[in-house]
Amino acid sequence: MPAAPPRICGCGRRVPAGVRCACQVRRDREHDARRPSAVARGYGSKWREARAGFLAKHPTCCRCGKPATVVHHTTPHRGDRALFWNRALWAPVCQPCHDGPCQAEEKRP
């Protein structure tokens, strides 16, 4: 099977298939430097305890049926504590479903 061809990044650079362009890496690093820590965003010990309890009661992914490892906020809370702690807006999902379709749906306008 032939290797995938290189792609052209938005910055104009030719990038091998499966490799991230230096501009993407730099942009992500700059974003992470400005982002508050997980604890500052509400994901501290209280969250870890609530998450473990929720996953114990809801052990399977609501999308594919695999074991759930992530509690997904179905409505993005964007720092709103009321939305963050509203358990009616939590969904058990596996990591692949969370990082793929769930995140893609949130990014849609």
UniProtKB/TrEMBL annotation:
This is HNH nuclease domain-containing protein. It comes from Methylobacterium isbiliense.
